[in-house]
ATP/GTP-binding protein
Amino acid sequence: MGLRASSEISLAGTDGTTDADRVTHTFHTTETGETDETGDTDDMADMDDTPVMYVQSSVAGAAKILVVGPMGVGKTTLIGTVSEIKPLSTEATMSQAGARLDTKVRPTKTTTTVALDFGRITLGGELVLYLFGTPGQQRFLPAWKDLARGALGALALVDTRDLEASFDAIGHLEDLDVPFSVAVNAFPDSKLHSEDDLRSALDLLPHTPLVICDAREHQSSVKALISLVSHLIETLTEAP
């Protein structure tokens, strides 16, 4: 079975609704990281792409979402692609000193995130996601853990050209008990792998969403985020 494309995340349920239709609750995230459900939303696929500076008056809830993965996987690109505000990026030029500590990356990679990336996207006019991109280098793990505080969930980006590089980020999410979904960022020279092979290689649980996305494309990246939010809602509603 081939890897499920991100456009296939809206599977009809027994009542005729889809995952996107079932996103009928939004979340209020408190300063302590606690969440509660409130209100209803329209289909999250019906988005207003008009750039805005302030949160829309129709917004009923918000959630902090991490975007994690190894250096060079596309975290900064994805946040910049979907953000409705000018994203905050802490990119710095890679130095020889850092090269001795960091995992070797492709020669075309000349900058790296040293603190965080930040962006915002409104889904369905009622749910705001605040996106926090984490540094990919192991030496920034203390800052990574601080960013995870209060996060409702995480989108883990992986690169099939170097799956092993994603193990640490996914492991950190599991250690911190942060629910997550996985998005395979499709690079032009990425090899195709079956979903079963990828799940086995990444040691994913059966219920963990796995989708393909292109971090450079708005709709593709949004669908990956919708996949995550749908998973978070299912996780919260199934919790005792």
Observations:
- Residues 1-48, 94-102 have pLDDT under 50 and may be disordered.
- The two ends are 33 Å apart (CA to CA).
